[in-house]
Amino acid sequence: MPLSRRQDLIRALPYARRYARALTGSQPRGDLLVAESLRGLTVAEPGPMPARLCLYQWISRQFQPGPASDAETLNTVKRKLLLLTSLEELSIADAARVVDLAEAEAAEILSQAHADLRKVAQTSILIIEDEPIIAMDIEDLVRWCGHEVAGVAATEADAVDLACRTKPGLILADINLGAGGDGAQAVASILRRHKAPVIFVTAYPERLLTGEAIEPAFVITKPFEPMTLAIATYQAVTGGPSFD
Q: Which fold has domain 3-117?
């Protein structure tokens, strides 16, 4: 494999891990899927697509979904297209290439998937965010997605206390809480007492997606659009727990 191609794949790894983890609902399963895909890519004849898209394509092809849950309304192709276009911010044309569909067919399926999101099972969401204005924006987005706000915490201590009292169905946490502590530590404390899916929000997702430690299965990059949150909450609630 040419050195430039190898370097492109290395640069694509954080984003591939984010996609695979969101698709599988698990850090270990997602990272294993990325590793298997990367091994396949390194011995395959280079295709015409950019390295990042090729890695997404191998992940999409090798992914084997488990049994559908009672809450699931989106099939695997719809999930892939939603994650690729919203979480990974690909164009419909590029997402269609990744999942081996014609662009028009992918656009139609994606439109159906957006409509299906409105049927998602509602849950209560604990928001961990120290910036008041951002917290209010996230509250509005959570309600726009059809969910309830279990509470808003600006510090580690408040987050743990709120989680113990409200038992949220999902946790949406910023990483950096400023003087209020660390969002990841708050989540770790909560998960020792109460199991719930977790979505981390950060402006620097690549710092969380190194594959070197226990990391989140679901990561949203700041700033994010309402549809990104809607897709991430759906996948987190129906796609599996945030940690194995």
A: Butyryl-CoA Dehydrogenase, subunit A; domain 3 (1.20.140)
Which class is domain 124-239?
alpha beta
pTM above 0.70, yes or no: no
The domain limits of the chain are 3-117, 124-239
Q: Report which secondary-structure segment, H or E, holds 176.
A: none
* Number of Cβ atoms within 10 Å of the Cβ of 66: 10
Cα distances (angstroms) measured from residue 170 to each of 27, 106, 182: 17, 30, 18
Amino acid, res. 137: D
Supply the DSSP symbol for 165: H
Q: What residues are paired with 199 via a beta bridge? A: 172, 218
Distance CA 1, CA 46 (A): 8
Name which of 222, 196, 213 is nearest 25 in CA terms.
196
CA 35/CA 211 separation, integer angstroms: 10
pLDDT single digits (tens) 119-176: 666 789 999 999 999 899 889 888 877 789 999 999 999 999 999 999 999 999 988 8
Cα(157)–Cα(172) distance, rounded to whole angstroms? 16
- The DSSP call for residue 206 is G
Distance CA 170, CA 38 (A): 31
157-160 long-range contacts, CB within 8 A, separation 24+? 157/181, 159/126, 159/128, 159/183, 159/186, 159/187, 159/189, 159/190, 160/186, 160/189, 160/190, 160/193
96 touches 49 (CB < 8 A): no
